[in-house]
Write a structure and sequence with these properties.
- There is one protein chain.
- The chain has two domains: 99 residues, no CATH class; 53 residues, no CATH class.
- 35% of the residues lie in helices and 17% in strands.
- The strands form two sheets. The protein has a two-stranded antiparallel sheet with strand order 1-2. Strands 3-4 form a two-stranded antiparallel ribbon.
């Protein structure tokens, strides 16, 4: 198992390189155009059980972000209850939030836990996060109120 400091250093380097998907807002991880989840369908994680690209012609706006959907049925489900499908921590990395940082969540590194969607920044971080999901969620839930409104760069 890698030490957390080593993991966080790698994450910081990854974030520095992956600037194209940095958040337009602070509390929500969206592209500079306001596209959330890099265009992946938030409902599909719960209904299909896999990361599914959304169709650019099937969209909804919520909290100043645009969400894409693979079907009209998914859009309707989202429109009826958006909060049920939004990723936790504004779509930022769940492990990063547990450590007090805001790193971009990768829509392909995800897990639904107790009906909530969590993203992580990379497969390595996801693997580390899976070692203690309840503990890391508890840490992230504790940290999130203090970092939610902060610019991700200010936390590094």
């Amino acid at each position: 198992m890698k030490p957390i400091k080593s993991i966080l250093t790698g994450v910081a380097l990854t974030v520095a390189v992956a600037t194209q998907s940095l958040a337009a807002g602070v509390e929500l991880n969206a592209s500079s155009t306001g596209l959330a989840l890099q265009g992946y369908d938030p409902v599909a994680y719960f209904t299909v059980g896999e990361a599914t690209p959304g169709n650019w012609t099937i969209t909804s706006s919520y909290n100043d972000a645009t969400y894409r959907f693979a079907s009209e049925e998914h859009k309707a489900a989202f429109d009826a209850d958006p909060e049920a499908y939004l990723p936790q921590y504004g779509g930022y990395c769940a492990f990063g939030a547990a450590m007090g940082f805001k790193f971009d969540g990768d829509p392909n590194q995800w897990k639904v836990v107790d009906g909530e969607l969590f993203l992580n920044i990379s497969a390595d971080i996801q693997e580390r996060w899976l070692e203690d999901v309840p503990g890391f969620i508890q840490l992230a839930d504790t940290n999130w109120p203090a970092i939610e409104d902060k610019d991700p760069a200010s936390l590094q």
